[in-house]
Every structure is written in structure tokens, then in C-alpha cells.
Specification:
Blueprint: H1 2-10, H2 12-27, H3 35-45, H4 57-69, H5 73-98, H6 101-112, H7 115-122, H8 127-146, H9 151-164, H10 171-183, H11 194-206, H12 208-216, H13 220-234, H14 240-254, H15 256-275, H16 282-289, H17 292-301, H18 313-326, H19 329-352, H20 366-377, E1 384-387, H21 392-400, E2 405-406, E3 433-438, E4 461-464, E5 468-472, E6 475-486
Amino acid sequence: MNRVRFFLKTYPTFSLLLGFQLFRLFLLPFMGLTPQDAYYHFYGENLSLSYFDHPGMIAYILRLFTTVFGKTVFVVKFADFFITSITLFSFYKLGSIFLSKPKLNNALILISTTVFISILSFNSTPDVPLLLFWTLSLIFLSKALFENKKYYWLLAGLAMGLAFNCKYTALLLQIGLLTFLVFSNKYRRLLLSPWVWASLTISILTTFPIWYWNYQNEFASFLFQSLNRTSSISKFQIQPKFFFGAIGHQILLLLPILFITFFSLIYKYLKKAVVKFKLPSDKTLFLLAFFIPTFLAFFLLTPIYWVKLNWMMPSYITGILLAAMVIKKKHIKTHIYISAGIHVLVCLQILFYLVPIKSDDTWVGWKEVVIETEKRQQDYPNSFVFSADGYKTTACMTFFSEQKIYAQNIIGNHALHFDYIGDDLSILKGKTALFIDSDKRFKNNLKKGNHPAKLDLYFSEIKELDPIIIKINGKDTRKFWIYACSNYTPIKENE
């Protein structure tokens, strides 16, 4: 006991970081599968150079972990936890380049206690490896610039390319580098350096799998991620709920102290640059180049477009380092107390599911719906199962079921990456299907009384069965409508 007390007093920052990580690790066995976990695991079970929604790094990581340790929910979660832990260590290495030891301790406390680190540790998304390779890219770029070690340019190019193989927003790394070089009086000359352009060239070559997959598939992923979203933005319709929703999300992810500090930093440095034509030191300018463009650009979109809560996460890395330079000790203590309170509530929710989540973005009920569906399926021999809610129900049922679960392309709707795994739907002609439809706003145990009209185009008869009711802690918590659909006619025969 005395040794523990000595350790806590001697290494308070490391003790706090370790405490939060052990807390997260403790919760992993109690976490259920989320739709995101299931969908990116589905990616990994269908290995490809890239995928419709995102590049494949998260898929490769999950495939590696489940191959080595087995296909379980815990292993999927542990993969996220493990990668995020490496990200925290990489953050420490990055911070040691820019901050004194006391400031670095502040930065470690700030980042390790945030909710966004918990989300990355619990939930499989492309952001999990993105944050790691983003941080590694910044380490290598820092050493190449400030320590004049040429070979780090090559490592930086590789890391930036691998970051793009996580998520397309990693393009902001190259933009951040060029922004820094343009505004830095000392390092602007490097715009003509072959090492810089070699780094950028390597980063592009590393992304070849993504380009080749898109070439093979009519650039479907690039079009999905660009044209669809730019068309929505171009409408320029003010949506206050988007703006305030984004503020709420960012306050939750960062906690109030960091969120306020971020805007204080943006105001401070932009004012100096615009009003006084004064730029900070090169090291501070470097951090700003990878913070302000990413954070502010997405935030300025929030009044007209629903910016997802994870889009700004890469900017947090250097943003927190900047915040650690100015934040006061009393505010760090407040940040810790708020974080501890929120994480206690998270723990209670995970362990006891106190507040039902009226959404499919939940971690409960998915295994149970597979069990109940397979019971109903015994009355319909040689039938198949499908859902039509984008990817969530199909992906989650796929994880827990030994049979193939189909997606909404069964009824002619675009089904994200489920459209690109080579399914031959013609083999299902004439079969009966069980259609599973989640009741997100579960209010009662009654049948729905109707069915989606589009089912009539593909099946000769639709019969609603008794809904599947999932109990959690003895309470009716989730509901799935289920329909027996007879005599399937494939898509091509309906066109």
C-alpha cells in the first residue's frame, strides 16, 4: 500500500493517465457490439484494397486482432483500446518536442481524461487508426523540420499516406504542412526542397490501393464522400439545430474547459495575424497549422451541414498541446472533476443500461435478435434474412449469425459496401425472406400493422409476424418488427 501511495505522489500524471486507461479496460468486457464495430468487422471479413464508405485501415486492424485472438466482441473492442493507447503514447512523444515537462504533463492529463479518447477506446471507427497515424505524421514532420533529419521526411510521407488509408480527411495533413511552410519565414525555402516533395510523393504512392479500388469501381467512394456532401452544402440552408448540435457534441467530447480554450486560442492567434500581422514562433505556428484549418473549417460548416462529432478529432492533437501552454492549473482540476463525473455516468450506463437509447446506435440487443430471428426461421425452411436500415441491423446480425444476412439491396436500395462484395441475388429467386425492421422509437409491444410499400415490388405476399421484443435487465428495451415475405423476385427482373 505504501508503494502505491509513493508511486501516486511521485508520478501523479502517469498515475492519472494509467487510472483512466485501466478504467476503460475494465469496462471493455461489459461493452456490447455497436453497429460501427459490426460494420467495420464486416469490412475485415471481406478484405479489399479499399471500401465504399472509407479506406480499409480499421478493417485490416480488426481482421488482424480477430484472426489472432478470435472473433469476439471483446477482441474487437480491445483492438480499439490497444490502438488508442498507442496513440496516447505517440501524443506524449509529440508533446515532448514542443512542451516543457510541466506543460507536457498538463497536455497528458487533458487528453487522457477526455470523452473522445473513451469513444475511440470503445468503438470501432476509421478515426481510431487515423488519430494514430495523424500523430505519427506530426512526430516525423517535426523531427524533419526542427531537427533537420532528412530521413524523417520519408517516414512522414509514409505516415501521411497511411493516415489517408484510414480516412480521407487525412488530406488535411498535407494541407497543414504546406500551410506551415507558406507562412513560416524560416522554413518557406523548403517549398523548393526535394525532401519535402519526396515526402508528399511517398504519401500519394502509399494511397495507391484506394485509387485503384476507386478506379475499378467507377470512383464510387470518392463520389460518395465528395459530390453528395458538397451538393448539400451548396444549398446553403441555415440549420440552427446543426450548429447547436455540433456545439453540444464538441463540449461532450472535449469537455467545457478545453472547448472554451480552443476558441480562445483561435481568437488570440487569428487576431494577432490579421490585426497586428504578427505570427507566433515556428513551433507554435506548426501546431496551429494542424489545428485551426481542421477545427475551424468544419466548425464553420455547422450552421448549414450536419458535421459529425468525429470530424474535428484530428485537430484535437495539436489543439490540446496548444491549450496545455496556456491553461491554468485550477482549470485542469475542474476539467478532471467534470471528466470523472461523466465517466462515472458512462460506467453506470454500460453496466446497468439505466437510460434506454432510442436509436439503433446502441450496444444491446443485437445478439438476442439473431437468436429470436433464427427461432422464427424454423417455420420457414430455406428462407433468408435481410434488413433495410442502411447497414446497422445487417452488420450486427452478420457478426452474430453463422448464416449470411442480406442488406437493403435486396429491395433495390443502395446498400453501401454490401453492394460491392459480389452477391448474386438471383440465387434467392422464389425464396421466402424474413425482413427485420428495428422500431427505433419503441413504445409498445404491438404489431406495426403495415409494411414498407417497396416490399410489394419484390415479394408476392408479405405477412407480419409477432414482433421481437428484447428484454434488458428484465425490462422490454428493444423491438424489431419481422415480416415473412414470400416468393422473392430479384432486382434485375423488376427493372
